[in-house]
Specification:
CATH topology of the largest domain: Elongation Factor Tu (Ef-tu), domain 3
Shape: globular
Strand order of the largest sheet: 1-2-5-4-3-6
CATH class of the largest domain: Mainly Beta
Largest sheet: 6 strands, antiparallel, barrel
Helix content: 10-25%
Oligomer: single chain
Number of helices: 5
Length: about 220
């Protein structure tokens, strides 16, 4: 479990492909003496398990499933990546609950300066947009952000100077792909109420809740 508050930007030091899988090595900006084999670390929003620690470098195995669902397959040696170690139970939860299980890939379609900040619009598949609501939370390349506005196929976020300095987001150009993880609460709500299939307008489940109720409360769009 993560918060979406990036600890620092690391550098890809090695990539080794083996059939459908990949071994990824990273030089992190933090001391690896505190890292342990088997612990989780978020790399551009993807939860990976540390399998090797050597001379300030961390290595992780990336499965074919993870490569197919994320931008990790596009990484090259020297690329910068957002890193976050797993949340401790005693830590402050400054962002939002992030699993590191990427839902899909979005594409940056607009990037404009706004005062000292930047406004970025990202296009996503409509299958993901159902979980994206205005003023809700979303993780973009592992960064916890608040959604300023959203449409059926895109959403907009604001990158403040601190986030721009501490992450790789402002290095991304229009057309760049990014990993997207939507708020897990929306997915659980959908599973709970739609477990027997999606509700149609006017139809109620056993709890008496219908689609109009969910729309009114902002759970679905």
């Amino acid at each position: 479990m993560f918060t979406g508050l990036i600890e620092g930007v690391g550098k890809v030091s090695g990539i080794r492909h083996s059939r459908n899988d990949m071994k990824l090595s990273i030089l992190p900006p933090f001391d690896t003496a505190d890292c342990r084999l088997g612990e989780s670390i978020s790399v551009n929003g993807v939860c990976l398990t540390v399998t090797e620690i050597r001379e300030g470098s961390l290595s992780m195995d990336v499965s074919g499933e993870t490569l197919s669902r994320s931008t990790l397959r596009l990484l090259r040696g020297g690329d910068a990546v957002n890193l976050e170690r797993a949340l401790r139970l005693t830590d402050r939860l400054g962002g939002h609950l992030v699993l590191g299980h990427v839902d899909g890939i979005g594409t940056i379609v607009r990037k404009n300066a706004s005062g000292r900040s930047w406004v970025i619009r990202i296009r996503v598949e409509e299958a993901l947009s159902r979980y994206i609501i205005e003023k809700g939370s979303i993780a973009v390349d592992g960064v916890s952000l608040t959604i300023n506005a959203c449409e059926n196929d895109s959403f907009e976020v604001n990158i403040i100077p601190q986030t721009g300095v501490a992450t790789t987001l402002l290095e991304k150009t229009v057309g760049a792909p990014v990993n997207i993880e939507t708020d897990l609460i929306g997915k659980y709500v959908e599973k709970l109420f739609f477990r027997k299939g999606p509700l149609t307008r006017g139809q109620k489940d056993a709890s008496g809740i219908n689609l109009e109720t969910l729309v009114k409360q902002g759970f679905v769009r």
